[in-house]
Write a structure and sequence with these properties.
The complex is a heterodimer of chains A (about 210) and B (about 575).
Chain A: E1 4-14, E2 17-27, E3 31-35, H1 42-50, E4 57-65, E5 68-69, E6 80-83, H2 95-102, H3 108-121, H4 137-150, E7 155-159, H5 167-183, E8 188-191, H6 195-201, E9 205-207
Parallel strand pairs in A: 3-8, 3-9, 6-7, 7-8
Antiparallel strand pairs in A: 1-2, 1-4, 4-5
Helix pairs in contact in A: 2-4, 4-5
Chain B: H1 13-53, H2 68-74, H3 79-108, H4 112-125, H5 129-140, H6 145-150, H7 172-194, H8 197-212, H9 217-246, H10 249-254, H11 262-271, H12 277-314, H13 323-353, H14 370-378, H15 380-411, H16 417-422, H17 425-428, H18 431-445, H19 450-476, H20 479-487, H21 492-503, H22 505-521, H23 524-529, H24 537-545, H25 550-573
Helix pairs in contact in B: 1-12, 1-15, 1-18, 2-12, 3-7, 3-9, 3-12, 3-13, 4-7, 5-7, 5-13, 5-25, 7-9, 8-9, 9-12, 11-12, 12-18, 13-25, 15-19, 15-22, 19-22, 20-21, 22-25, 24-25
Classes of the chains: A alpha/beta (about 210), B mainly alpha (about 575).
Chain lengths: ~210, ~575
């Protein structure tokens, strides 16, 4: 079965003022791009999808992930991974600790091997025991990506994930993230300000307008 | 290239859901538990004081309501003086501490000296009131450091004179002690507000704007910063005022005996062998409540008056009110305060190791560790009690505070205003007014569990400070870390234990050190709830301060200071070794 993330009749409100209404289906490997000015409800949409909508906001509608309604599930059971513009690595854990935190339970040796293998794949060989604060911005972004992927998500949300990286790094990191999404055939939704992100995503583009 | 290797999906849904519910349920229940824990003892205590005050005391076989307690109270000789002394010492010391705090802030705003003064004064915060009183008493006594340093070259005294300090009937010694103790507290509270990332930055920028508009730095502080700062200082100020008007340790050690302050008199009546005096004492406790309540109302009224009086001058364009001279005065005043504190601490240390010490000499002739040795020999059981009560109370306070704070993100709304006000209830209601009632209740319920009673009573005073200290750090945590962890599949309890607690390691230790310091310093709650059977370093120190040798008293006061200081040093050092370096 092809994986898919489906937003059914979503209506998002801030203090009873409607921000957006959306009806979309994202197939595995596709990236839906959402653009719009700040305050148009982009980030709130992502928060709604993960189940962390802050108070003051409300929403109608349903989220279906791989044919299952996940509306009433708490965040940690939704299996939706998120990448933010900050890497948000846990600074009380090492690089490998951060990744291990995300991975399902299992044999310790097996998990560590998997982490080392994954780090090597993204050019961070031998960085497992480093402290995340001592990594460069690009390295941190890659660790955050690995952390999310190894939690084995069923869908991915990208909240302006590349906006803090400079141009060349941005292109490389974006390519890495997108290639992983396509390879694993995961449905993804990206919120961005940058048109080059939207072009690289090469999927459907939705532009939101500011609510009146 | 593939980063994920396919693995069998693990179905942990059922088990996590179950444990989630348990954890979430406990967390969501905790604010209600906190409320009950604070309201019941304070209200119960107040009611149990109210009833005897009106003559209803089944224990004393009095079951008819009457005003005999109040009649006895009104006929007490010197009652007016007692009340006046309580009001004057409370109000003047709070005002002085507040004014000096403002002057220091205004004169040194945005100057490196503010940090230096903060570093010098913050250790004072951990000194229990009793120890501070002992140290100040030594300093101003006829044979204290001040008169030694001034003799004989200035004063001409060859022998210690008959001075009026401490125990002067005007309460000047009490005012001095309270002011020196509360000043660092208020200053650190204000600096804590200014250290809030967003607010602090905004205020510093506004100060700069005022300077650019030609305002002198001190005027800029009073016209631009103070109006935004004051509302955040109101609660600490009221707590200081309530404490100062009803405290027992300071007036007991520094105050006059004939008559003492109202709070001290009430304590004597309650502890009198004549149980019938308890009716009068209960009536006195109500009077104390009225006195403190009146002072708080007076303060709030004064606040309004000041606001009205000065609202025009905020925008009158005057940029300079003799700021140069005020700056100089503040420097002199700050130096005086700091040297006063330093001198009293030096005096305390010297007394604790002094052998023979003739009067005008600034230094003892011999030094000896004898006092320490003999005091330490007898200190075993009080020391154990102090530590055990402090640790149990603080551990409980920290757990409860964390659960309550965790209930905010889990139930998606902040703790209600009512709850956050109630947390400070024990700081605003004079403890002498409800502690006796509380002790009566405790004796009714369980007469034997003195240790438990003391812990429960300490908790009333430890919880507010632990909560105050932890809440700001907890709420400053970036919520996205918790969201990331949850989106990685971590259940709420895993997020709490594996992400939030490690991130909060340093603030938790600071809160723990603060909680320990508060518990170590409690005098009246320990004395009353323990029924006099549980001796701690603080109760011993207060007892010894009136009567025993100055040297033994000094050793106890130093121990009182050392214990909380060790706690804070540990809280400062430990995070450098744990959770700082990467771990696998």
């Amino acid at each position: 079965m092809q994986s898919s993330l489906e937003i059914k009749n979503c209506e998002l409100y801030r203090q009873h003022e409607q921000l957006l209404s959306l009806n979309e289906q994202v197939k595995g490997g596709d990236i839906l791009t959402i653009m719009g000015p700040s305050g148009s409800g982009k980030s709130s949409l992502l928060n709604w999808l993960t189940g962390t909508l802050p108070s003051g906001f409300s929403a109608n509608g349903e989220v279906w992930l791989n044919g299952e309604n996940i509306n009433n599930l708490p965040t940690h059971l939704r299996h939706i991974g998120v990448l933010y513009q900050d890497a948000l690595l846990f600074s009380h854990l090492s690089v490998s600790g951060n990744i291990a935190f995300a991975m399902p339970k299992g044999n310790k040796k097996h998990r560590l091997d998997k982490i080392d293998h994954a780090l090597e794949q993204v050019g961070l060989k031998g960085m497992a025991n480093r402290h995340p604060d001592n990594l460069s911005g690009g390295q941190q972004a890659r660790v955050a990506l690995l952390r999310m992927l190894l939690s084995e998500p069923k869908a991915i949300l990208l909240d302006e994930p590349f906006s803090k990286l400079d141009t060349q790094l941005r292109v490389d990191t974006r390519e890495l993230v997108f290639s992983q999404i396509r390879e694993h055939k995961l449905p993804a939704i990206m919120v961005t300000h940058d048109h080059s992100d939207a072009e690289a995503a090469n999927g459907k583009l939705i532009t939101l307008n500011l609510a009146k | 290239m593939s980063v994920i290797s396919k693995s069998v999906p693990v179905n942990t849904k059922a088990t996590t859901q179950c444990s989630t519910d348990m954890f979430t349920r406990i967390v969501k229940f905790s604010p209600r538990f906190l409320l009950a824990l604070l309201i019941l003892p304070v209200l119960g205590g107040l009611i149990s004081v109210l009833l005897p005050a009106f003559g209803y005391a089944p224990v004393l076989e009095q079951t008819t309501f009457s005003l005999q307690g109040f009649n006895a109270l009104w006929q007490t000789p010197g009652l007016t003086q007692m009340v006046t002394l309580s009001v004057a010492t409370g109000l003047i010391s709070t005002l002085l501490a507040f004014i000096i705090t403002l002057m220091i802030l205004a004169a040194f705003f945005n100057s490196p000296w503010l940090n230096r003064i903060q570093r010098l004064l913050s250790p004072i915060l951990v000194i229990p009131h009793a120890a501070a009183a002992i140290a100040v008493g030594f300093l101003i006594a006829p044979s204290g450091m001040i008169s030694r340093l001034a003799s004989p070259w200035l004063s001409g005294w060859e022998l210690a004179p008959n001075g009026m300090f401490p125990h002067d009937s005007f309460g000047i010694s009490i005012i001095l002690g309270l002011t020196l103790k509360e000043l660092p507290f208020l200053l650190l509270m204000a600096l804590g507000v200014l250290a809030q990332p967003e607010l602090g930055k905004k205020l510093r920028q506004q100060h700069k704007v005022a300077l650019n508009l030609g305002y002198c730095p001190m005027t800029a502080f009073f016209k631009v910063i103070l109006p935004s700062l004051y509302p955040l200082l109101r609660l600490p100020l009221l707590a200081v005022l309530a404490y100062a008007s009803a405290s027992v340790e300071m007036p007991l050690i520094l105050g006059p005996n004939t008559p003492p302050t109202l709070a001290v008199a009430i304590m004597h009546w309650f502890n009198d062998v004549d149980l019938n005096l308890r009716i009068k004492a209960s009536a006195g406790a109500l009077l104390q409540l009225a006195v403190t309540g009146g002072l708080l109302a007076l303060w709030l009224g004064g606040e309004k008056a000041v606001k009205v009086l000065f609202s025009d001058s905020l925008t009158n364009g005057v940029r300079e009110y003799g700021g140069f001279y005020w700056q100089k005065i503040t420097v002199v005043l700050t130096t005086l305060v700091i040297s006063f504190i330093l001198l009293s601490l030096i005096g305390l240390v010297m007394w604790s190791v002094a052998g023979f010490w003739r009067f005008p000499d600034a230094m003892p002739e011999q030094f000896t560790l004898l006092h320490f040795k003999s005091a330490l020999m007898q200190m075993g059981s009080p020391l154990f009690n102090t530590l055990a009560i402090g640790l149990v109370t603080t551990l409980f306070a920290i757990i409860l505070t964390l659960l309550c704070l965790e209930s905010e993100p889990l139930s998606d709304k902040p703790i209600s205003r009512f709850t956050s006000l109630i947390i400070y209830l024990p700081l605003l209601v004079p403890s002498i007014a409800f502690l006796f009632g509380l002790v009566w209740i405790q004796q009714l319920v369980n007469n034997q569990a003195a240790f438990f009673n003391v812990v429960l009573t300490h908790l009333l005073f430890v919880l507010p400070y632990v909560f105050l200290s932890l809440a700001s750090s907890y709420r400053r945590l970036d919520p996205r870390f918790a969201h990331v962890a949850a989106s990685l599949g971590a259940a709420p309890c895993k997020v709490f234990f594996k992400i939030k607690l490690p991130q909060l390691f340093a603030p938790i230790l600071i809160a723990a050190a603060l909680g320990l310091a508060i518990s170590f310093g409690q005098y009246l709650p320990t004395l009353l709830a323990g029924g006099g059977r549980i001796a701690t370093i603080t109760t011993e120190a207060v007892t010894l301060a009136n009567g025993a040798s100055r040297r033994t008293s000094a050793v106890y006061a130093i121990m009182q200071m050392a214990l909380p200081l060790i706690g804070f040093i540990l809280a400062w050092v430990l995070p450098k070794y744990f959770f700082k370096s990467a771990q696998r």
